[in-house]
TrEMBL record:
UniProt organism field: Streptomyces finlayi
Gene3D superfamilies: 3.10.310.70, Metal-dependent hydrolases, Urease, subunit C, domain 1
Annotated PANTHER family: IMIDAZOLONEPROPIONASE, PROTEIN LONG AFTER FAR-RED 3
A Pfam family annotated for this UniProt entry: Amidohydro_3
UniProt signal peptide: none
Amidohydrolase domain: residues covered: 57-541
Protein name per the record: Amidohydrolase family protein
CDD domains hit by this protein: YtcJ_like (cd01300)
Keywords: Hydrolase
Length: 546
């Protein structure tokens, strides 16, 4: 396990008081003591007086809220940094608008060998199509440009970039005048990212981690792999995170293994699992998620990258080696293949061993009652992204375009997963959707399909403690004595309890329930502002002028 922050050398003891501390140890806590990188005590303002004379520092919270720091369970850190510092097309409202942004960006970067952008989504444009190769060539002035779609499963590129990738026209997924997918896309992405200098890469990684810290994120799960980035990118990120204060980085390397030799290679890279974006299928937006029934707007069922036998072999090898296995699976056929493969591994190794390994599935969007029950049986963690529903759900959204409204309403059933006992870990898949932890909890609590909504408290738990549990640790993501002192301080309005069922909400606000409140996340209300983020007792972000 790679952690980005070591204990403070001076082991300062800090008392925080005069606010609200979100802790199951005391639902009415207003103070907390941190010592040697861990929570030492949580309690009331009156009891805090006993500590005040024996600590190195007292922080007056002035009414602020203290919570566990968030964990983002699915991040592509370098790509996130490049999106923050590079060409962001997510705001483009039309095809001409996107091309205008490309022209302006290219003209302002005369020294870059390859230009990278991110975030276009043609389903939001009146033209309902991506740029042609000729249109992009003209906008780029003949320079190499790589522009992945918002889901990062396809990309439009210029002819000049194709010229840097010998043999690309013979690869599967190559289309002369349409977005590249599959192996052709992976090849051009590798070429584009390979053109980055170590300095550019480090700048992007630092930018991403700084941004995460500014949002109260104390931990990120880096989901890397040979089809997404490269080994140098992965190992350099882990090294950078270990050397400087910032969010913890737990790294997953999505490479299929079959034996102990393969497991040893995963460990040597510094990864905690052969998991993350090990692709069983693609994405709905790019028509590459693997479905049981054809798309509503395309005469096929998407793309399968791994079959049941390959999944079973990977899970078996990982379980025997004491590693987490994990898969990217979005379509219902892909999720079914994962369930069948993990079940086959459990029949060989024993259900207890497989459950204990806490294997995980990324995205897991198209679930059925049967596959949800199988997740619970097999101990699979659902690493999910509620912002996907906020962006693409609803009867008029991209999901409905691809699947029809009826099938689209079944996606991302968080309430059913929780009722069945499936562990949830929330993330962003940044840069697919932005780092935005409170917005992520809001998206789950106010899901576009009402029956899939969960309480703010459950969503908050999935985005804090759920991320720790997803890496096999039960000691973090909660502010109780003995837990790692990873926390965030927030300026926010009155604390409330929000649940989909009004009867639950009414009881939970009764003092007898002992339910600690959280910020009001009703759509339209302002989200909390992060004032400070602390990892292992060390401040990694302090809001300016606070």
């Amino acid at each position: 396990m790679t952690e980005s922050t070591a204990p403070q050398s001076d082991h300062r003891t800090v008392l925080l008081r005069g606010g609200d501390v979100h802790s199951p140890a005391d639902p009415f806590a207003t103070a907390m003591v941190v010592e040697r990188g861990h929570v030492a005590w949580v309690g009331s303002e009156g009891a805090a007086d006993a500590f005040a004379g024996g600590v190195d520092e007292v922080i007056d919270l002035e009414g602020a809220l203290v919570t566990p720091a968030f964990t983002d369970a699915h991040v592509h850190t370098t790509s996130t940094g490049l999106a923050l510092t590079g060409l962001d097309l997510s705001g483009a409202r039309s095809l001409p608008g996107a091309l205008g942004l490309v022209r302006a960006y290219v003209s302002g970067r005369p020294g870059d060998r390859v230009l990278l952008g991110h975030g276009w989504d043609a389903t939001r444009w009146p033209e309902q199509r991506p740029p042609t190769r000729a249109e992009l060539d003209a906008a780029a002035g003949g320079r190499p440009v790589y522009l992945p779609r918002i889901d990062v499963h396809s990309a439009v590129v210029t002819t000049a970039l194709l010229d840097l990738v010998p043999g690309v026209t013979g690869l599967a997924g190559y289309h002369p005048d349409a977005p590249l997918t599959g192996p052709a896309h992976h090849a051009v992405r590798s070429a584009a990212h390979g053109a980055l200098s170590p300095r550019q890469r480090a700048e992007a990684q630092r930018a991403a981690l700084r941004h995460a810290a500014s949002l109260g994120i104390g931990t990120v799960h880096e989901c890397a792999g040979p089809d997404i980035s490269d080994e140098d990118d992965f190992t350099s990120l882990l090294a950078l995170a270990a050397e400087q204060p910032g969010p913890r980085v737990h790294g997953y390397w999505a490479e299929r293994i079959s034996d102990e030799k393969g497991a040893r290679r995963i460990r040597e890279l510094g990864a905690i699992g052969a998991a993350g974006d090990l692709f069983v299928d693609g994405s709905l937006g790019s028509h590459t998620a693997c479905l049981h029934e054809p798309y509503a707007d395309a005469p096929h069922t998407g793309t399968a990258h791994l079959d049941t036998a390959e999944i079973a072999a990977h899970v078996t090898a990982c379980t025997e080696a004491g590693l987490q296995a994990g898969f990217h699976a979005i379509g219902d056929a892909a999720v079914s293949a994962v369930v069948a493969g993990v079940r086959a591994a459990s029949e060989r190794l024993g259900l207890g061993r497989v459950r204990a390994a806490r294997h995980r599935v990324e995205h897991a969007e198209m679930l059925t009652p049967e596959t949800i029950a199988a997740f619970a049986e097999l101990g699979l963690t659902a690493s999910v992204q509620p912002a996907f529903d906020a962006a693409w759900g609803g009867d008029e959204g991209m999901y409905a375009q691809r699947l029809g409204a009826e099938r689209a309403r079944t996606l991302n059933p968080y309430a059913a997963l929780l009722r069945t006992g499936v562990p949830l870990a929330f993330g962003s898949d940044s840069p697919v959707t932005p780092l935005d932890p409170w917005g992520t909890v809001r998206a789950a609590a106010f899901h576009r399909t009402p029956e899939h909504r969960i309480s703010v408290r459950a969503g908050f738990t999935a985005h804090t403690r759920g991320g720790w549990r997803a890496v096999g640790r039960d000691d973090g993501g909660v502010l109780v004595p003995g837990a790692p002192a990873d926390y965030a301080v927030w300026r926010t309005a009155e604390l409330v309890v929000q649940a989909p069922d009004d009867r639950v909400a009414r009881w939970s606000t009764d003092p007898r329930s002992g339910t600690p409140g959280l910020p009001d996340l009703t759509p339209g209300t302002e989200l909390p502002v992060c004032l400070r983020t602390v990892v292992f007792g060390q401040s990694v972000y302090v809001r300016p002028n606070e």
